[in-house]
Amino acid sequence: MFFWRRRPEDDTARKVRVVVPNHTVPAGTPAKQHPNHVYPGNEVRTTKYTMLSFLPKNLFEQFHRVANLYFLFIVLLNWFPAINAFGKEIAMIPVAFVLGVTAVKDAFEDRRRHNSDKRINNSTCRVYNSVQERYVKTLWKNLRAGDLVHLSNNEFIPADVLVLRTSDEHGLCYIDTCNLDGETNLKQRNVIRGFAEKQSTFEASQFRSNIEVDPPTTKIYRFHGTVVHESGERVPVGTDNLLLRECVLKNTDFVEGMVVYAGHETKAMLNNGGPRYKRSQLERAMNRDVVWCVVILVVLCIIGAIGCKLWLASFTSPDFLPPFITNYYSPSYEAVLTFWTYVIILQVMIPLSLYVTIEMTKILQVFHIHNDPHLYDEERKKRVECRALNITEELGQVQYIFSDKTGTLTENKMIFRRCTIDGVDYNHPPIAEMQNLRPGVATPIHPNARLQDEIQALERGMRLSTDSSLGSRTLKSTHEQRVQEFFILLALCNTVVVAKHPHHDSMNASGVIESPSVITVEVQSNSSAAATTTATKYSRLNESRSVTPSPTSSTRPRLLELSGGQSSLSPICSSSESTPLGTPSPKPVRRLANLLRVVRPGGKHGSSPAVTPSPSGDKKPIYEAESPDELALVDAAYTYNCRLLKRVASTALILVPGEGMVEYELVQVLPFDSSRKSMSVVVRHPVTKQLTLYTKGADSSILSQLAPTDDPAMQLFIFNTQQHLNAYARQGLRVLVMAKRNLSEAEFDAWHVLHKEAEMMHDHERRIRESFCRLETNLILLGATGIEDRLQDGVPETIAALIEAGIVVWVLTGDKQETAINIAYSAKLFSPQMELLKLAARSKDAAETTITAYLQDIERQLPHGSNLTSNPLASLADLPPHYPKRALVVDGKTLTYILDQRSNLKKPFLTLTRFCSSVLCCRATPLQKAYIVKVVKEILKVRTLAIGDGANDVSMIQTADIGVGISGQEGMQAVMASDFALSRFKYLERFLLVHGHWCYDRLARMVLYFLYKNATFVFLIFWYQIYCGFSGAVMMDQMYLMLYNLVFTSLPPIAIGVYDQDAPADLLLSKPALYKQGRLGSVYKPHSFWLTMADSLYQSLVMFFITAAAYSDSTVDIWEFGTSLTSTCMFVNLLHVAVEIKSWTIIHILSMACSIGGFYCFAFVYNSFCVSCFGLPSTYWVIYKTLGNSVYWFTTVLASVLALLPRFVIKVLRSSLAPNDVTKSLLEHRNIRRGEEFLVAWSSNTSSSSVLR
């Protein structure tokens, strides 16, 4: 008992792993005695196989497939002498062919992975070498846990590294994690506690502390460890101290750290998933029909076994035994053996090669989709990316689309259009030149003239205050104070990083220290101030000093030294959400030209001011923002001369209108989360020491937290702001409300104590969120902003086409209802003819009442007795044509009630949505998005597609049947989680309506044809058993039997599956309703299989018995008869393809010619040279004799015509009397084109005759 209780404690103790610095281990220590030898190296291998393991491992994987195991069983069965039907070597041909083709494909894919691994493993980094006592150039694959590495700006991080030293005096550095999690915003990392003060004195050789860390996990943002110093002191470390592999060092000159996880133990490799494998609806139906093929095969074998027993039982006399049986026991015993013989000879019924053909067909389909020039984005230089190769046909069967709005439907080009301050609205008209700006960046704005004058008034007040002999500042009005604080909030309340340039690392790529050249730049002061400042400008960091060099110096602005002698106006091109390089900033507001008063911490108004030149002559600094919204707000503040110049962990330096340079202390940052829908920052003024909470967020979050007031002016201010917010929302602008709260030291200290307690609790995430909410109360309103995010080109047309195609479109957004509705009308998600239904309940009962009322109203408008609302699978397709279209709008709070498991509202809600053409969900959280997709997919049993561009869309994308990522500006995480990636939403129209339609139609008809030709061939063999006493004899040569499916008839199905078109692309785009064919799955219905089997049965009867009748009175042998049947079957199959082909191309003709030509070529060679091959019965010269008989040609023509006549007649009658929608549209399209060609020809002839006259 005690033994079993102690084991968990021992397991826990073993979970802590100790990493020792490698330079502290004596050189020459045997590998097995090295303390870090148990940890893997940094070499990575993503390949499946090696040269030695390829064959056994690949075969092992392939035999996990049931079909391959079945055919292996057939091969083994053929080795039993009592039941063998074919030659042992011949029986191995089908399975060897399939295994070989698959193995070649797997080897090719693995070779690509090997080349990628080789390139990565041979990258270089700098590792500390204790023998040479310096950093040396080392390959990534030679890196090990415990090594100290030196990284430069823009360099990829080779392993998971614990930060020990950075170029920043505060021990900060920044990384771009886009390659890991898809987020483009920079993430801040710190050196371990106690090392920030040692940045200037840190020496790699002196670091001798061990590091205890948790075992490696897949959780990217979870890391716990302890640094154990030689003195015994233990310092905890966490995620903020860890640099992850595949990230890029940004905005930092250099970093030194120690490797704690290497190779396959890094979080990047642990999260490196392979390609996605999903099963489509068509594949599921095909698998079901393959099972029916097995049933048919078993039935045929049983019938054959029974027939064999009955035939043998007819030989009753013991003196007259059945012929050709050497060891005869009993009819029952022979029947059992014959059953297994039939399993061998009728094996073609199971379409083994169908799976290989489908795989090849889908690869070719993906190739053509990827190379479609109409889906190529010239501006972004991107094509369609197909990450899931096995669900192309699912693109043609989509019934529901769930789309994000921001960045997916919109451009993600944020334009600062409106703002309201102190109840006054300030309009900012957009500029015309926006086409050359990169998405994801803030666009320049035209300053509002009135607001410009107010800012200038603030600066004039500062000038008067500075020149005043009294040294006192003139009092600002309430409006001026709110204007000033509004822009201070825009500049401070964010997580923007001010880039620092140039990024210089004196260590080159080989680890050698080089002396940088220093250029001194003198800045001439104004005549009224004799002070001068100098700044150090480093020469360009050339390629020898970094694996990945920094941007060229031509893009860097001239630098000025601000307080502390650190350059802060230094842009870096590293994030998509940053101000563009080389783009001149908008003309700034006129400000104090010569002098700016610098207010330092602890300074006094009466002190002699330190004069710093205005940075107006320099280019605008480059900001790294978490989102385009933040960037737009900071840029707007910059335009009005409230400029964020420097930001570190504890302070932010701002040029404030009316005050000059102010260095605020950043006391606490309350980051944004989707529950609070707000973000805050607590700052301390350097002079007044006043603590202020600045908050920005959604109107629903901020307005409800405003402090109550009886002041009529404040009430009017709040009322006007709400009116402005409603107006902004009607214009489709993204609104944010700005507010503040002045805090006393006692209030903040009391809150901070409770907040620290919340951080230590078990459910700390919820507790921290509640702690933030407690501080964000009793707010004072400052104003609000309205930012425009324009729709992408082609979005309205695309959504209108998708709705016309019968696809129900849901847009899930976090915007407020008025904004979302306005954009929905602009995007043609809603039309003026639609009746708008709104669900905005504040309780579960209210939501239930509203849904019930809408359903009752729909029920009254339906035909009497239809009762469609009681059917959860009812839809718009069930409604009369005159039924009015509806659209539904539901807000986030109502969604919460609907999606609650206890509410029982999901089914009524989904029933209501089935009668709506489009649905708009407002204020939806990422988890709600994913849950909506899950509920719709599971309850309504429909095929869903989710499309988004941001990290918050990943759950939704992964939940849907098809996930589409937009490779936009919110990172690549949505793309990495998706099945397909598009560069713009407008390409979804052609992607689904053309390629999706084609892929489904082609693959469905290809599968049915494959099943048809196999069944026809099997039935021919079965009819022959009537003439051979059900003995299992085969009239066809065994080589023909084996190669029929694998070679002779392999190309036509691929031609159908890849290149056939039932309608041209322009017709499918002009008539989106034709998508209905795939959406309803009308090409491959459950009964399609049985119709195909019936057709196969009829055609086999015609071919066999016509051929048998033609040769009944002749002296032909079994092989000539079998060769005639084989060639007849080939012709019928190819003519069947000709009837099914919708658009003839040279590829279709070549596939048919190669099939029949390949058969005859093989037959000529085989019958000419193979007298006795593989131990098979000789068919020498049979093909020549067969072709020389006129009966053969007569039989082939007659059987082909009679076999295909019913199918041809039915197809003609259907096209003439009851054509489907595609056929109707195609006929109309051709008639229109013929009419146009006639008019053109007539016009040309008329013109010619006029000239001749």
From TrEMBL:
Q: Which cofactor does it need?
A: Mg(2+)
Read off the InterPro entries from this record. ATPase_P-typ_cyto_dom_N, ATPase_P-typ_P_site, ATPase_P-typ_TM_dom_sf, ATPase_P-typ_transduc_dom_A_sf, HAD-like_sf, HAD_sf, P-type_ATPase_IV, P-type_ATPase_N
The membrane spanning regions, by residue number, are: 66-84, 90-108, 290-312, 339-358, 1007-1027, 1089-1112, 1118-1139, 1190-1210
Tell me its EC number(s), please: 7.6.2.1
GO terms for biological process, alphabetical = phospholipid translocation
Residue limits of the P-type ATPase C-terminal domain?
975-1220
The domain of life for this entry's organism is: Eukaryota
Keywords tagged on the record = ATP-binding, Endoplasmic reticulum, Magnesium, Membrane, Metal-binding, Nucleotide-binding, Translocase, Transmembrane, Transmembrane helix
| One GO cellular component term | endoplasmic reticulum membrane
Its main localization is membrane
Q: Where does Mg(2+) bind?
A: D404, T406, D949, D953
Q: Belongs to which family?
A: Belongs to the cation transport ATPase (P-type) (TC 3.A.3) family. Type IV subfamily.
The name of this protein is: Phospholipid-transporting ATPase
| Source species | Cloeon dipterum
